[in-house]
Amino acid sequence: MVKPSFWAVLALLSCPCHLVLVLPLLAGTSAGAYLTRHQSLAVGLLAVLCFVSLTMIFYRRKPKPSGETAGCSPGKTGNGDEACCAPFRQE
Questions:
Q1: What's the domain range around 64?
Q2: Rounded distance, CA 90 to CA 71, Å?
Q3: Any idea which UniProt keywords this protein has (predicted)?
Q4: How many domains does the chain have?
Q5: Cα–Cα distance for residue pair 71/21, rounded to 1 Å
Q6: Does this model's pTM top 0.85?
Q7: Is 27 helix (H, G, I), strand (E, B) or coil?
C-alpha cells in the first residue's frame, strides 16, 4: 500500500498551477524541454495526475466505523485477548 504522504507529495508536485515553478527546475533536461514544448498536454496530464492523487489522499482517510480502533477490530487484539480495548469492553 502506498502511504497518504506519498499521494500528498505527488499532488503537490503535479498540480498544474505549480508547473511555473517546476519548469525552471527542469531547465536543461529533456523532461524540461518536453514540458516546455508541449505545455498544454503537460497541464492536462498533470491536472489528471493531481486529481487522482487528491482522490487517493481522501480515499485513504476514511473514518473508521464505530467500535473499531486504529490497531484492532472488535473482539480481537494482537496479544490473544478477547476485548480490543479493555476499558471500552462491552459486556
A1: 4-88
A2: 18
A3: Membrane, Transmembrane, Transmembrane helix
A4: 1
A5: 40
A6: no
A7: coil
